[in-house]
Fold:
Amino acid sequence: MKTSAALLTHPGQPFRIEAVDLDQPQANEVLIRIAAVGVCHSDWHLATGATRHPMPVIPGHEGAGVVEAVGPGADDVKVGDHVALNWAPACGSCFYCLHDRSNLCETYTAPVWAGMMLDGTSRIRWNGQTVYSYCGLAAFSRRTVVPRNSCVVIRKDVPLEVAALVGCAVATGVGAAMFTAGVKSGQSVVVLGCGGVGLSIIQGARLCGASPIIAVDSQTPKIWVAKHFGAQSAILSSDDVLGIVKRHTNGRGADHVFEAVGVPALQEKALDLVRPGGTLTLAGLSPMGTTTNFPSALLTRQEKTIKGSYYGTVHAPRDFPLLLDLYHSGKLNLDDMITRRYRLDQINEAYRDMAEGKLARGVVVME
Ligand SMILES: [Zn+2]
Ligand SMILES: [Zn+2]
Structure:
């Protein structure tokens, strides 16, 4: 069938909206009519070339939609089911899956990061050429075929644009606070960076009962937004961040600090804000190959812990529904995370707005 999609053909060039040929789902695959896709930094790294990927590729990995057809073996998913897409599908039987770390599942890493279905082939063509599917999802397309294991069936009484955000920013952020760091009630939290992931960390920390929650960002509008989502204190990064954090934490520094941007210099600065015995959680994805220079002498003497958080340490089939239940019961504010909605043909404008820091989250809504 023909469908229309946003395609990247070369790094450094804008998205182009093209008609592509989409095959029917094969074994253990599902055809989805996409309803909404979040505008996430990781796709932008593809567009700029910071992440190298075979092209042409259809980006979009923060999506939700409705099942239109299922391939053989995928019949535990039904036509008409609502699904949120998981960009790290898990096998359920490898070492990591068996040790409650399905976000680190190694079985499907190779085909998914190669932009293929799990059998190593593609379902999409453009002018006869193979098209790659970012994270095996290619969500910036009106219709797409994805692996069964990338689909998390969700309740039908939540908006699909909200469900889309759960598939990346919200899982990454709320999960970083709840699952990776395991913030406890009464603990102090500092969050560096108040984009979609940072705001989700703030909400996760709030759900864990953290106090105080201190938000830091370089832009004034963003720290005000952070207060809306539960930060008691909001600081501009040009201010005396260390001094203010210490004043809020009896001079010690915070129990938990989260870096939500993925910038090495900020990651190093974040460690200074952690109290002795406290934890720094790195939840922002920095481009591959970047490194930091942490002071090992201090790490030892002050017993600070540094944790990586990949996809919020979530187990998607368990935690996407949990996050949507929290949304439904009014405990997780996802409606206000969406700053602006765009049509698919406005995708370049959406990424421009994101790059300029204008969005908590933008969402492309397919009509
Ligand atoms: Zn993302
Ligand atoms: Zn696995």
